[in-house]
Design a protein that fits this description.
mainly alpha, 2 helices, 0% strand, rod-shaped
């Protein structure tokens, strides 16, 4: 029984470490998603700033602006792709965190059940022991 408790404690330590690592991976995935979203918003702002203006009459500036808008459009498409990948990674990390929590709670329940069985066994052992008190005083 003691060996079983030690192995459950070891498993609990491992599951706790795994849960910590998975939570860290989930936080990194959240940060990556936030970073990609900020980048996507920045690209959209830049694209709005490069829109053609009425005052710019030179053809060269129109060509340069069109080229820059095209490049920003390509960057926006790439940012959308990275955003989708980051979202999938975050969903995967969240699912891994839920699984790790489930595993850890299962081990905690096993330990609690083991402790409860040990308490019941100790109580039965106490019930079966003969009374240790002696009557010190005889009939007076």
């Amino acid at each position: 029984m003691a060996k079983r408790g030690q192995s459950l404690d070891r498993i609990l330590r491992v599951r706790t470490l795994q849960l910590g690592l998975v939570r860290a991976a989930e936080v990194q995935a959240q940060e990556k998603l936030a970073s990609e979203d900020a980048l996507r918003l920045r690209i959209a702002q830049l694209a709005e700033n490069v829109a053609p203006q009425q005052s710019a009459a030179e053809a060269f500036s129109f060509i340069a602006a069109a080229h820059f808008r095209d490049r920003l459009s390509q960057s926006a498409a790439a940012a959308d792709g990275r955003m989708a990948v980051a979202t999938r990674n975050l969903e995967r990390a969240s699912e891994a965190t839920r699984e790790a929590r489930r595993d850890q709670s299962a081990v905690e329940k096993l330990i609690a059940r083991d402790d409860q069985a040990a308490v019941v066994k100790a109580m039965r052992a106490l019930e079966e022991t003969p009374p240790a008190r002696k009557n010190r005083h005889g009939p007076c």
